[in-house]
User: What shape does this take?
Amino acid sequence: MWIREAQPTEAEAHAVTDLVLRSKAHWGYDAAFLAACRPELTVTAADVRPRRIVVAEGDDGALLAVASLEGEPPHGALGLLFVAPEAIGRGIGRALYAHVLEDARALGFTALSVDADPHAVGFYRALGARLLPDAGGALPRLAVDLPPRPPWARAWADGRRAVHLGNVAEFQSQFTGADRRPRPAASPGRFPAADHYACLAAFASPHPVAVALPARIPAGWIDLVARQLRWARVEVYDRLDEAALLAQGGLGERWRDRPLVAWGHTDAAARLSGRRLPTEALRYESKEESGALFRRLAPDHPGIRVPDRWPAPTRRAAARLIAARARIGARTVVKTAHGAGGSGTRIATGRVRALSLPRGPLLVEEYVSGDGTHPTYDGLVDARGAVHDVGVASMDMGAPDGTAYRGATVGPGAVPERITEPALRFGRAVGRALAADGYRGWFDVDFVTGDDDLLAPVETNLRLTGPSVAFMLKLRLDETRGGDHLVRCVDRVDLGARLPDGELLAFLTELTERCAGVDAVLIPTIPSAAYDPEPYVGVALAAHTLPRLDAAVSLTQTSCASLARAFR
Assistant: This one.
């Protein structure tokens, strides 16, 4: 199913009017009533453009639903929303409703009215519409509030549907020098870990138009995601990386006028998007450089304490520093100069062998003892250099040592207020420094909360991140399902068995339905590792309350683990 503008020829051939009348008849109205309604429900060729009529079309080209956005900003009307009887119950009406609301926001509407068939009032109320007191009309009237999107969402990709590029491996390799491992065509499913993680690029904005990913993606995955997020049609191009896109001349005519959202800035991504950064713009991706920036900014931020840090050019030098600190009973964090998701980071409590450490140069850092809270600030530097707050998330850094990123939670109550405010203020200051260096785009600042409740900034990431996915999903769910969602991304849920594509999609489809049963939403985010030697999936879960969210997480983990029993 995909959503597009209606064509005048379709209206002229009565295809749209026939769909509307068949949908109306579904509720049991007799022929005389439908005949009386026909003049009001007739859609002519001249109506298509002024009434902004859109249709949902099946893969076979059949019209499945029709909707219209009428009037002029700021107040308009959802004039039509009809679904063909054979398509009712498949989520098509919800997807079309979400599409019209998205267009309305983009055009500047702040509120819509709906004169609804009495049988459809429950549908609209479930989507957040308010039933108004008797307005004196023949039909019940509802109101749909459209609060404007936050500034960061209007600035990101110019607020437009974009093409997403999952260039995770390319971004990291420009700092580490690591080559991408080859992906033999005869070995589907055997990809570098970065290529699995690159699937998160599908969620690099609230509603993409197309996604280019380096991994082989199971057929049907994007359709399942689209149903959950009420996306219009999104095209997926798998096994397509930066080199392949450049080799074929870029995005092609089909997507030439669309913004490109890459996971991170690279030379190739700059050539594809036409947006190049100054040489110095990415320097704070280095942990050593970001630490120096934190030390410069910290005196103006009383809630911030920067951990002491010592550079170690070799593993042997790092081992000596660790040993010296161990003699005074101090724990130590050892880090590589670059890394993602906690890679290249370990905690040392005593003497260590030099060969057991990552290759140098390394950073030896004071260990910050705290309650295990790991907040992260996400922000955006727009094209003019202005800094926009996105929010503060709570990261899950795993156990027992708390160095491996596993996911993040955003939403009401995810991060205590006493932590949120200093993180926002410091994150903004970091953003202004990035902007002064010419950086434009998404960034984050990761913190550790100390025993004294002070925030210790530990690194910046000048790219999209796992928490950024949670923020994008929250925005989309809040806009299309209503309310204030808690969203938790879990980037790795181990599967009890390796699943080929068909079985994986059937399992994930059933799991989304089971989560809906506890009033939660499940979105499969990383589907490409389910046939690995150690199979897993990534998911995002959302609910309006923490108990429901926790219940959905437990249900998901239990269901994935139980696959082992099913295959014995």
The CA atoms of residues 223 and 466 lie 22 Å apart. The first strand starts at residue 2 and ends at 5.
